[in-house]
Amino acid sequence: MHREIHKSRHITVLIIATIIFLLGILVGAQVEQFRLEKLEREFREQSRISDEMQAEIEYINYLLDSQRNNGYSCQLLVNSYLDSIKRLDDIVFSLERYESSAITRLEDYSLIKENYFNLQTRYYILGNRVNSLCPNSFDTILYFYTNEKDCPECEDQGLFLDHIKRKHQNNVMIFSFDIQSSVTIVSMLSNNNQVKSYEVPTLIINGENRLDFSNVEIIEQFLEISMEN
Description:
The protein is α+β, with helices and mostly antiparallel strands. It has 2 domains: about 30-135; about 140-229, Glutaredoxin. The protein contains 8 helices and 4 strands; from the N terminus they run ααααβαβαββαα. It has a 4-stranded mixed beta sheet with strand order 2-1-3-4, with helices on both faces. A hairpin with a 3-residue loop joins strand 3 (about 200-205) and strand 4 (about 210). It is elongated and about 90 Å long.
């Protein structure tokens, strides 16, 4: 009798443990599904924002043509550019969200990253046009980096650039590109600036000055507009 009760308890414990285990799997699957759906919504939102930014870029190009032909207000032109480029931060946030997620879908992540590099390039070109028509509007920095394994210094270089951006805000525009990216425009930019994958981190300041790994003080020596304000 005692053995039967003992055996029955073991079976009961086993059944309860099995139920708890299956519930854990079920809850875990539901949580991951919820996170996946949230990331998919964010991806769709970034696609919408990207479309809007493309329209804004076209409008700023129109303002640039107006400035060239009719003496349009530089202040309005620069402010329009600065208001639009701020939205790139939203895409950076999504990239960080995807990168840190354990359930990142590589296809979605790659699409957002490719779109980000393409948008950055358009804003870089646009910024150079703004500076050519409205001199001394802001400094520009092209930053080529890659993953931490291949470039241990890149993380620190990124932190220095974050400090530069916080300090000088709209007086400096920073455009960052993963030199190992398969996006064609990234290869074009790195080739045009003669930057090799083994040379990162590399900074190109105002299209002229080239720096390797540099701290804030060194970078600031090559900034023009930012240090005047």
